[in-house]
């Protein structure tokens, strides 16, 4: 075995050890490294009972409403299985919309209402011109229309 | 050292010697610089003027044309640096260490660009300049790794020892790169998933994709030009150090 083969073997062995350590560390951190909990996880009690945490999901269609005092808004965050009512006082980000992703930071009050101190919009990885988005929406609407008319027959 | 000859009859190891590499690098730099300038100007033209607005983010998404290529190269250059560090340690090749050392500042610059442009993007779109999610945090760690690498290089006076110590740091830090890349898959992050990957069709309009890829290519040529220039300085510097040492004796 030449000296340089020995060095290569040592580096490869070192890299394998480091990679193994990294895998173990990231695995054990998995639960701590989550940026937000989904409503289902909160239901199961995986989120902290007291103190601040973040919930994430989609803003449920038709649930966004402004309270009579004009400052607070309420909406439901859903992961399509479970949903949670969130209340927030402040300015919502531009991309905040019903049916779109959201991450809210805050805590649960006694009534099980999630009072948010910060609301962040989570957007997806799709980029396209507005015309293309409109065309896709139209195509999908047509599809559901034809499906429903077929069902009516 | 045994002489390796490839099938084409070219002695590739010749270029591992700083003496032959120095003039070769000098000849290549103008080509890569011009190529980089042309591609970056064209890419910016496509990205800022030709590409359409985005259906949900409006004009703000255009930062993607700098942010994403910069983030790619922050990771890619780190892997390249670690690769040269391994070569340097295994073959005891001085030029490999010089390459690794010359890559670090460019990699750090791209990391900083990715972090800063990401921050400018995050404020209007997410509603926050910075969040401690896995993607952003691991990219910040990458910046610290780069800074740690060249601090360690310059902290040790003996060039050979500095090369070896910093090479080990570069290799150990390489585990961070897959963590950055897959962070959006492994954990719930605020950062969105990858629009472009090898396994699925790109989730963006063709013209946007074209602009981004041309910018990435431009960044690649820029990196090569700057790194080669830095390697030439490094060769000169080490050579003059050695000359001084010879005079001392």
Quick rundown:
The complex is a heterodimer of chains A (153) and B (249). With 153 residues, chain A is an alpha+beta fold.
List keywords for this structure.
heterodimer, A: 153 residues, alpha+beta, OB fold (Dihydrolipoamide Acetyltransferase, E2P), 2 domains, five-stranded mixed β-barrel, extended, B: 249 residues, mainly alpha, globular
Describe this structure in words.
The complex is a heterodimer of chains A (153) and B (249). By secondary structure, chain A is α+β, with helices and mostly antiparallel strands. Chain A folds into 2 domains: 33 residues; 84 residues, OB fold (Dihydrolipoamide Acetyltransferase, E2P), CATH 2.40.50. Chain A is built from 3 helices and 6 strands. Chain A has a 5-stranded mixed beta barrel with strand order 1-3-4-6-5. The relative contact order of chain A is 0.11. Chain B starts with 17 loop residues before the first helix and ends with a helix. The chains are: A alpha+beta (153), B mainly alpha (249). The interface between A and B is large, with 42 and 40 residues.
Number of domains of chain B: 1
Based on the structure, what is the oligomeric state of the protein chains?
heterodimer
CATH class of the largest domain in chain A: Mainly Beta
- Which two chains have the most extensive interface, and how many residues on each? A-B, 42 and 40 residues
Number of helices of chain A: 3
**Fourth-level CATH superfamily of the largest domain in chain A:** Nucleic acid-binding proteins
Average pLDDT rating of chain B = 89
- CATH fold annotation of the largest domain in chain A: OB fold (Dihydrolipoamide Acetyltransferase, E2P)
> Structural class of the helices, strands and pairings of chain A?
alpha+beta
SS strand fraction of chain B: under 5%
Overall tally of structural domains of chain A: 2
Beginning-to-end CA distance, first to last residue of chain A: 79 Å
What is the makeup of the main sheet of chain A? Answer: 5 strands, mixed, barrel
Structural class designation of chain B = mainly alpha
Shape of chain B: globular
Radius of gyration of chain B: 20 Å
> Main sheet of chain B, how many strands, which sense, barrel?
none
Succession of helices and strands of chain A? HHEEEEEEH
List the uncertain runs of chain A. Answer: none
């Amino acid at each position: 075995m030449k000296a340089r083969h020995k060095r290569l073997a040592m580096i490869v062995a070192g890299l394998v050890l480091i990679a193994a350590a990294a895998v173990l560390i990231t695995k054990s951190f998995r639960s701590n490294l989550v940026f937000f909990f989904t409503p289902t996880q909160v239901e199961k009690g995986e989120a902290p009972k007291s103190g601040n945490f973040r919930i994430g999901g989609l803003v449920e269609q038709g649930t966004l409403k402004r309270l009579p005092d004009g400052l607070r808004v309420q909406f439901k965050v859903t992961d399509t299985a479970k949903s949670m009512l969130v209340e927030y006082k402040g300015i919502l980000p531009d991309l905040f919309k019903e049916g779109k992703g959201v991450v809210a930071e805050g805590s649960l009050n006694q009534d099980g209402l999630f009072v948010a101190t910060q609301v962040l919009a989570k957007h997806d990885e799709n980029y396209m011109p507005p015309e293309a988005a409109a065309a896709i929406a139209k195509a999908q609407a047509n599809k559901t229309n034809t499906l429903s008319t077929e069902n009516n027959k | 050292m045994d002489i390796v000859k490839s099938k084409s009859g070219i002695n590739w190891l010749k270029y591992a010697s700083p003496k032959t590499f120095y003039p070769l690098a000098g000849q290549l730099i103008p080509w890569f610089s011009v190529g980089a300038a042309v591609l970056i100007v064209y890419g910016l033209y496509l990205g800022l003027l030709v590409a359409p607005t985005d259906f949900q983010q409006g004009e703000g998404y255009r930062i993607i044309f700098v942010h994403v290529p910069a983030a790619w190269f922050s990771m890619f250059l780190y892997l390249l640096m670690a690769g040269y560090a391994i070569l340097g340690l295994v073959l005891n090749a001085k030029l490999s260490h010089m390459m690794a050392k010359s890559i670090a500042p460019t990699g750090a610059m791209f990391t900083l660009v990715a972090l800063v442009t990401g921050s400018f993007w995050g404020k209007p779109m997410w509603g926050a300049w910075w969040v401690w999610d896995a993607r952003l945090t691991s990219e910040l760690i990458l910046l610290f790794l780069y800074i740690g690498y060249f601090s360690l290089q310059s902290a040790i006076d003996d060039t050979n020892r500095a090369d070896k110590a910093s090479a080990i740091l570069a290799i150990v830090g390489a585990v961070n790169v897959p963590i950055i890349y897959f962070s959006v898959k492994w954990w719930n992050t605020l950062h969105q998933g990858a629009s472009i990957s090898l396994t699925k069709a790109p989730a963006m309009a063709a013209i946007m994709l074209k602009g981004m890829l041309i910018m990435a290519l431009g960044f690649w040529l820029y990196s090569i030009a700057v790194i080669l220039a830095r390697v030439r300085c490094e060769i000169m510097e080490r050579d003059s150090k050695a000359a001084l040492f010879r005079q001392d004796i």
